[in-house]
Fold these 2 entries.
Entry 1:
Amino acid sequence: MKPDLNIVIVHILPGRLRIRFSHPFRKEGDLTGIIKRHPGIFFVAYTSVTQNLVVKYDPKDITTEEIILRASLAFSKDYDFCPVQIRSAERNVSLGNLSLYAGFSLIISHMFNLISAKSQKFTALNMISGVTTLTAVLDHVYQDFKEKRQFHPEVFSLYYLVLSLIRGNVLKGATITWFLTFARHLVEMPAGSLVVKTVKADSTCQALNCEYEVTVSKKATNGTIGNVLHILPQLALNTYRSINSTLEDSLLQQIMAVAESHNEVIEGLENLKEGILLKVES
């Protein structure tokens, strides 16, 4: 089974870059050597415990995008040329199907309670909605922590929901908790990432003195209900926004600029004179 390789851009400062790898490098020396080999690199440090890479460089000699690309290629090569996803540490966690199921169950509970608030069946339905909401919030908190390595303040809504379950005010507590936790995600840009695929050079590529061929593209959005619900709010927001791009969009455009400035052939990994054919799919 191929590993799911990810590179997270932790932060970018002028002349300084920190990225985090999802898997440890099996050959750490290859990574630092590949990065150091390019002119303009002052400092490279890889920490195996945190799987973080810190690079200090001169932006006049090498761009941030080239460093990220070279790190991605080294990562892919270390794992037998598996694809690598590049994403931001600040990306938004999209609504999952579980949170949407909880929202729909709350709507159904409110509808039935308008019909008859005294029915035991509807009281049980309220409890099911409350437990579903609790499960959805716990799952969302876990996914958010896994992505960002920290808890969002919305986690405190769990305390209110648990108290509501204990006091028997289930439907009101679950509804308020759902909105406190998930409402903001309906108007956020859905999470995105770039995919870097590396293959050994074929005969066409070798004619250009290239050792690898790399394709960079945007990852296709998953067809979940949550992503569909992002469409209408985003159409409304785009009416008032002149700029609506994520870090991934900006990075893809900058990689395209790198490809154009190098005539689609960037410096090689082990040997700078043996190039890498860079293709960008927008």
Entry 2:
Amino acid sequence: MEGRRSRTIYLVLDGLLIRYRITRDGQRQVVNIAVPGDIAGAPSCFFEGALYSIRTLTNAVIASVSLDTMSALLETQPHLAAKLFWLCSCDAALCAEHVVVVGRRSARERIAHFFLELLVRLRAVGMADETSFQMPFSQDIICDALGLSLAYVNRELRALAEEGLVLISDRRVIVSDVEALADLADFEQRYLQPTSAAEFFAPRPAALDIPSAGNLGSTRRRSEVSARA
């Protein structure tokens, strides 16, 4: 909860969550949607009070790790530090892209980008097919994530449906033309496709101790002497 002291990091194992902040006038700003494999609780756990609140959108399974436990683990299993750094970097990339989307794109482009980003992220964790995914939340989440009114979002969704780009039916989002929608939103997937943690932090092979040419010659000569003896 925003403002409360928290010393815990959460790993989302299943389900969807939102990270959000309530402004002084009571409005909600959704910072991001967390999917399985994401972390929550950082960076708030490193501050005196939590910077954001977290709420589940669906039934969820979450693993919690206290900072004390994490600190002890990092001393004995340094690869966890690398993985945590990788997860935080992925989260930072998402937040940076969100700033660009909300700050520099039109309402229609924001909505198109929102759906495409969710499609790619959910597809990566087996929660979407090539062109559609279940949307287990109401449109007010879209409004609060993109800084748009409900009336504006409804109008743009109707326009996207009429243009044959996006259809929402029975809480399922169907992207009818992924390429056209990506062109509309200027959507690029680079920020969602980091180098895998296993590849980036893979242990380097030990250096081979290869004798120099001079040493090879010395070794050969010693072998010849031994043979003649």
